[in-house]
Structure formats: C-alpha cells, structure tokens
Amino acid sequence: MTDRGPLATVSPLDGRYARYTEPLVPYASERALMSARVEVEVEYLIALADLDATPLSIDDDQRATLRALYEEFDDEDAAVVKQLETEGYGEYAATNHDVKAIEYFIRLGMPEGLDADNWIHFGLTSEDVNNLAQRLLVKPAAEDVLVPELREIRDALVEMAHTYADVPMLARTHGQPATPTTFGKEMAVYASRLGRAITRVERAAEGLSGKLAGASGTYAAHVAAYPDVDWPAFAEDFVADLGLEHEPLTTQVNPCDDLAVLFDALRGANNVLLDLDLDVWLYVSDRYLGQEAVEGETGSSTMPHKVNPIDFENSEGNLSKANSDLVFLGDYVTNSRLQRDLSDSTVKRNIGAAFAHCLIGYSKCQNGLAKVVPNEQVMADDLAATPEIIGEAVQTILRREGYADAYEQVKKATRGREVTIEDFHDMFADLDVSDDVRAELEALTPTDYTGIAEQQADDS
C-alpha cells in the first residue's frame, strides 16, 4: 500500500484543509476516541473499587498507573488497541470489537499486584462506554475549539462596528435602494446575532448528558450482582464526575437529544455566518468593501487584476456542508430501533467531520474579515446619487404636519423616476408649511438620514 500522505487522503479535511482542522485532532480522531474509552473504563473500575459492596481494592499507586493509561495514551497505544481489534495481540485473538479491544488493552496495562481483570467493563454494555467517551470529546471540541473561534469572529465584528459606526451607507431592501444605515451598525447586527448564537452553543455543550445503565437501561446486571447497591445514584455520581449531566431513563442507548440540541445550536451560529458571508460578498461586489491584496496570491488564472472574495466563498461552502451534516446527525442519532441498533455507530464517527467543516468555515470567515476595508467614497457617491431615499423622511414629516396624502404625494414625485435633491427642494417650496418645517425638510440629505445607527453600533 502506498503512503497515505496529505495528497492521497480521501477527505480534504485530512488533506488540503489539515492545517485548519488540526485543533480538532485531540477530540475527533480515532486515537482520541480510544483514549476517551480507556478513561471511562479506568474511572469506572476505580469507582467500583470505592463501593463498599465490592471486594475490589485499588491503592493510590495503582490508581495512578491505571490513569496513566489514558493520560499518557499515544500513537503506540492506539496501534496496540487497533491490533487487538483487527489482528490480535499477544495472548489475545482479534476481537473484531472496538470496545472489547479497550478492555484487553487495560488488562495489558494492569498495575503489578492488582488482579482486577474480571472487574473491567463489569455489568456494562458497549454503549455505556461509548456514549460517555463521545461526550468527553464532543464537549471540549465545542467549548475549547469551536466557541473560541466564534468569539474571535464576534470580537472582529464588534471592532468593525465601533470603528465604522459613523460611516453612512445606502441600505438595500429587496435589492433596491432603501433608508440609509451605517456600515458599523450593520456589523453590529451580526455581532449581536452571533453573540446570542454562541450562548446557545455554550448552554448546549454544558448540558451534554451521559448514561450508565446496562444493556437495556435497567441496571439489570448490576442489580443481579449487587441488589443492595443504589446503582442509579452510583451512575449519577459517576457521570457527574466526568463533567456530564446524568441521563436517568434510557434504553441501551443514550437518546442523544442532548447532541441534537448542540448540533442545532451550531447550525444556528453557522446560519448567522452564512448570512454574513453572503452580505459581505455582495458589499465586495458593489465595491462598498475593498480587499487587501495578498503578495504573490493569484485571484484569477486569466484576469490578473482580480482580488476575489475567496475566504467568504470558502466559508460559505464549508458552513453549508457543516449544516447539512449537522441536520443529518441531529435527525439520525435521536432514533433507534427498539432498544438498540448499530446504524448510529458509524454515523457518530462523522461528528468530527461536521465540526471540522464548521472550524474551516470560521477560520475562513476570520481571514476574510481581516482583509476588508470600507470604501467610504464609493458609499458616499452612491448615497449622493440616490436622493429619492429621503422620500420616507419627507412623507413622515408631512404626515406629522397633517398632510393626509403625504405618502401619495411623495410617491407620485419619486417612484420610478430619476430624482435630484433640487426636485425635492422645488416640492418643498410649494408646500403649505411653516418656514421652520421647510428648513427642516431642506436640511434632509441621504448622508445624514441614518437615524440612531451610529449609536446602535457604538453600543454593540
């Protein structure tokens, strides 16, 4: 077999985009899942030893040795686990079962003087281990990798909102010229939306829950062996010690409603950024935003002048792919035939891929925001060329002054016509209003007609 280097990978996540997805390796790789499974099995073994009902005793040195199995888990250990599963290792034949391979791995690393082979995986089903191990990876992947990247984007948007709070810009509703805004205020909108989305992601990650209740969720094997132990209380304490909430009522599988909530929260954050990507792309297209040219970079293979908004386009593509995966995952993992089927096993292995597309999208969006600068002159020229947008203010002031047909009068003078600011002034001269009101109308300009947009941006 040829070497599977970055140019021979099946997925761009481990090839072209590997430098972006590297932060997820400790949480989304096969090695990471093995290590997390070892952690669950080892901590469960130690928790059994702490039960008065069991004869198992593990001293401090032995506990340290056991915990080192996952704390110092490396590529060589992962290779041993894989060999136990696929080929066999030492005295153990191939298990063709990934969790059983973990059990044998722990046996191989059992501390000297500790005879506890029969207590490893005691009363458990594989899903007890897997659902906890997966959440031990998903939780920090969301909290320590994805959320900080989202916060970086929000911080960049807040900075842009403050920096360009007073830069007026023509707004567009239905793609047509509309009441002006400021560029800073529009960035503040996205910062606010993203901030709320981040809070939802954080809450969802904090609320991840695990189960430890046996083959059908009834603690049957545990109760059969030690009927006097309060196994639900034991499970609740054990899951809480792992940093997760306890799911008390399950089948063999964790229902995964908690994962679905997290996937939906991430999709919500991604939707905010997708909207941002599209808007910034359009601002670049309209020349409202200029882009910093990167030395040596090629924009087009045939048009040398081009500086394309490739970061926002790449972000859009990856976030769209991530959302497709997140919807699929959220729908799929919450269903199981009766008490258990294995179709979800392979699906859950793709959680990391969905997170990776999120991470690439966030990185690309950050890169894009760092390169764009408002073209204030283009924005000002566009406002000056569109004086009809003060029509809203004109008809509103006239309504205040008692003009019942104010809207219709301004509409007749402006809709579907090229209008100049002088045309408005001619209209104002014929109005039956006081000199103060006429002066108020004549003072209206597209550049100044931005309401409290500057304040809104500054307050973001």
Automatic annotation (TrEMBL):
Catalytic activity: N(6)-(1,2-dicarboxyethyl)-AMP = fumarate + AMP; (2S)-2-[5-amino-1-(5-phospho-beta-D-ribosyl)imidazole-4-carboxamido]succinate = 5-amino-1-(5-phospho-beta-D-ribosyl)imidazole-4-carboxamide + fumarate
Pathway: Purine metabolism; AMP biosynthesis via de novo pathway; AMP from IMP: step 2/2; Purine metabolism; IMP biosynthesis via de novo pathway; 5-amino-1-(5-phospho-D-ribosyl)imidazole-4-carboxamide from 5-amino-1-(5-phospho-D-ribosyl)imidazole-4-carboxylate: step 2/2
A Pfam family this chain is assigned to: ASL_C
Top-level taxon of origin: Archaea
Coiled-coil stretches noted in the UniProt entry, renumbered to this chain: none
PROSITE patterns: FUMARATE_LYASES (PS00163)
Family: Belongs to the lyase 1 family. Adenylosuccinate lyase subfamily.
Boundaries of every Adenylosuccinate lyase PurB C-terminal domain copy: 336-450
Name of protein: Adenylosuccinate lyase
One MF term in the entry's GO annotations: (S)-2-(5-amino-1-(5-phospho-D-ribosyl)imidazole-4-carboxamido) succinate lyase (fumarate-forming) activity
Keywords: Lyase, Purine biosynthesis
Quaternary structure annotation from Swiss-Prot or TrEMBL: Homotetramer. Residues from neighboring subunits contribute catalytic and substrate-binding residues to each active site.
The organism of origin for this protein: Haloarcula taiwanensis
EC identifiers of the protein: 4.3.2.2
Domain annotation Fumarate lyase N-terminal: ranges: 15-319
Annotated GO biological process: 'de novo' AMP biosynthetic process; 'de novo' IMP biosynthetic process
